[in-house]
Amino acid sequence: MDAAERQRYSRQILFPPIGEAGQEALLAAHVAVVGCGALGSFHVAALARAGVGRITVVDRDYVEPSNLHRQWLFEESDANEGLPKAAAAARRVEAINSSVEVRPIVADLTASNASELLANAHLILDGTDNFPTRYLINDFAIARGVPWIYGAAVASYGLTMPVIPGRTACLRCVYPNPPESPQPTCETAGVLNAIVSAIASLQVAAALKILTGHAGELTARITTMDVWEGTIRQIAAPAPDPDCPTCARREFHYLEESHHEAVSLCGRNAVQVHERGAIDLEDLSARLASLGEVRANPFALRFIAAPYELTIFPDGRAIVKGTSDPGVARSLYARYVG
Ligand SMILES: [Zn+2]
């Protein structure tokens, strides 16, 4: 640590459990933030300000005006440009703390790319909005021995729980399977920005504690909070389940499954399609120009085929708006992308 860094992080270093050694550990740390929406964009900003040396940001979506009331890192210009959240986050971190190395990944985290995208991360922060990705993170984290912090928020309530492999219960010890019924989402039930920052703050605090060598002092608790009611509840997480398929039997079902399929994005009247590999957006833009309105930047191409709107990413993934039917989405994808 040089004199400028010592000055920059002085108020954090003064906090005894962190000190110089803790700050050095943060500067050398690599955290993966999966999902850069409301929770994730807060994580990324807080980690960058705290001086975490490397941050991998994985997000499949792009910034929209309806994100701005709760997604702390983004501004109107990001939405106007239709920037992918990972790219917008990287741009903002450069302005917040230019010494942080950010790796923006515009992709869906899947069983096939998890090893590559999460490689060498010392810790994973959950900024996702869906259970399949959380179960995938849990499998990866337990398989590799990487701690991760579960977090979720919708409406005015949320919850968080740290998972430290070998010490605490994992996600499947607590919830053996993803919920079968549709869950309320930010799109269907709304969300307050205050619950997002509260849950994300607890996740970041747990991350800092683990990264600075205090994982052993972290209490395995499930914290639930409702900022509208003004209530906070904490219960001890159960002990690790001796019959848990993931952390006891080490069967990593979610790491083996293929997630390359059309997925209806709950509550959004949109479907994500991922049926092929990389796409040359410039070439596609030229092909679609005569068929409808095309807007393209290096990160995504947006094509209006009323009443549908396709946003196509260079990795071959597309989000089809205007339908919740995977069949319709696949057909539009086949028609316009090929
Ligand atoms: Zn378990």
Could you explain how this protein is built, in words?
The chain is globular, with a radius of gyration of 20 Å. The termini are far apart. Helix 4 packs parallel to helix 6 (85-96). By secondary structure, it is an alpha/beta fold. An 8-stranded mixed beta sheet has the order 3-2-1-4-5-6-7-8, with helices on both faces. The mean pLDDT is 91. The chain has helices at residues 3-8, 10-13, 19-27, 38-50, 76-81, 85-96, 114-117, 131-144, 171-174, 186-189, 193-211, 253-256, 281-288, 326-336, and strands spanning 30-34, 54-59, 101-106, 123-126, 148-154, 157-163, 221-226, 231-236, 263-265, 270-274, 293-297, 300-305, 308-312, 317-321. Strand 12 (300-305) and strand 13 form a beta hairpin. Helix content is 35%, strand content 22%. Bound molecules: zinc ion (ZN). Residues 169-170, 172-173, 240-241, 244, 246-247 line the site of zinc ion.
Walk me through the topology.
Elements lengths: L2 H6 L1 H4 L5 H9 L2 E5 L3 H13 L3 E6 L16 H6 L3 H12 L4 E6 L7 H4 L5 E4 L4 H14 L3 E7 L2 E7 L7 H4 L11 H4 L3 H19 L9 E6 L4 E6 L16 H4 L6 E3 L4 E5 L6 H8 L4 E5 L2 E6 L2 E5 L4 E5 L4 H11 L2
Parallel strand pairs: 1-2, 1-4, 2-3, 4-5
Antiparallel strand pairs: 5-6, 6-7, 7-8, 9-10, 10-14, 11-12, 12-13, 13-14
Helix pairs in contact: 4-6, 4-11
Zinc ion binds next to α9.
Q: How are the strands ordered across the major sheet? A: 3-2-1-4-5-6-7-8
Q: Which ligands, by name, code or SMILES, are bound?
A: zinc ion
C-alpha Rg (nearest Å): 20 Å
How many strands?
A: 14
Percent of residues in helices comes to 25-40%
- The chain-level structural class is alpha/beta
Outline type: globular
Mean pLDDT: 91
* Amount of beta strand: 15-25%
Instruction: Give the uncertain stretches in residue-range form.
Output: none
